[in-house]
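User: My collaborator sent over this chain with a note saying "see what the structure looks like." That's all I know about it. Can you take a look?
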Amino acid sequence: MSEPVAEPPPDARWQVVLETTFFLAGPTAIGKTAVAVALAEACEGEIVGADAFQLYDGLDHLTAQPSPEERRRVPHHLVGSVPLSAAYHVARYREEALPILEAIVARGRRPIVCGGTGLYLRALTHGLAELPAPDPALRTRLEAAPLPELLAELDRLDPAATVDRANPRRVLRAVEVSLLSGRPFSSFREQWEAQPRRRGVLLERPREVLHRRIETRARALFAPEHLPQVAAEIEAARRAGIGPTAAQVLGWRELNAFLSGDLLQEEAIASLVQGTRRYAKRQITWFRREPWLVPVELPDDGPPPLERLLSLLPPR
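Assistant: Without extra context I'll predict from the sequence alone. Here is the result:
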C-alpha cells in the first residue's frame, strides 16, 4: 500500500468537471464563506468545502463553519461531514470531492470549491501520485524524535524541502518518505510545477485588515454571548473522543487551557491570535506559489466584487 499525493494530470473522467469548477482560495478569516455564498447565489452554484478544519462535525463555532442561514441560502458539501475521532487525509478528500463536483455539474449548477487548505486544492487540480507507505518501525522511531531533530534530519536528506516546518506531522512524513524512497521528498512535489487548466482566485486583504479580522474572530470565541456554545462544543468533543487530526483545529488548545484555568482569557486570546496569524501567513505563501490563481482584493467594507468574480468563471 502507498499514500497518494498530488501529481498531474487528473484522470480523464474528471477533466470536464474540473474545467467547469471555480476555485476560491484564501487564508483564514479573509472572508471566503461570505464571498462564496454571494457568488454561488449569483451563478446558481453549490459550494464544496476545502478546509481541513471545517470538515469536522461538532466544532461549528471554533472552525467558523458557514452559518445555518448561509447553508439554507446555498447548498454546502464537505462541511461538518467527518466525525471528530476520524483521521482525514488528502486522498480521502479527493475521493469524496470529485463525485460531489460531478453531481453538481450534472444538476446544471456551478461547483465552487472554497477553502484554505492548499493541499486539498492541489489534490483536485493536479491529481494524485504514490508515495511509499508508512513503515511502522520507522514511524515509531520518528514519532519519538523532537521536532528540531526531525528538521535537522530533513535538512540533511532534502535541503530543498518546502514543507510546513512548524507542523510535526508534515515534517515527519517528509523525512519518512525520503528515507523509505531513497530520494528527496521535494522530488515528488516537482511534478506539481506544471500549472493546471483551472480557474480560480486568491482572495486578499491588506495585512493590517486581515490581522484585525483575525483578532476580532478570536475575541468573539471568548465573548459572553458565544463562549457557552464554544465550551459546549469542546466538552462534547472531549466526550466523543477527539482524534489527533481534529485536535489541531485553531483555538482547541487555547480554549481548553482557558476553560481548565491554565490560561487567563487575555493570554489565551493572544496565543490564538498569534497562532492564527502564523497559519494565515503560511496559507498565503502556499497560494502565491499558484500563479493560476488570480489575486482579487476584497473591500474593507461593502459587498464582494461580484462582477469581477463572475467575469473569471470558466465557461460551462
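A starting point for your reply to your collaborator: The longest strand covers residues 110-115.
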